Amino acid sequence: MQKNEDGIEKFEEQDAIDSYFDCITACSLHGDGLDCVTRCVEVHLKDGL
Question: Please, is 46 exposed, middle or buried when counting C-beta atoms within 10 Å of its C-beta (0-12, 13-18, 19+)?
Fold first, then answer.
């Protein structure tokens, strides 16, 4: 399996991004606003930053 320059396996990085977009889409559909999007960033992307 290929790794990027940070040593993170590409499929794991892609999975986190997909999960993030699924999360913010759910926020938009339910009208939860900025707090919901902030939670999505914290949950799905925080470890990758």
Answer: exposed
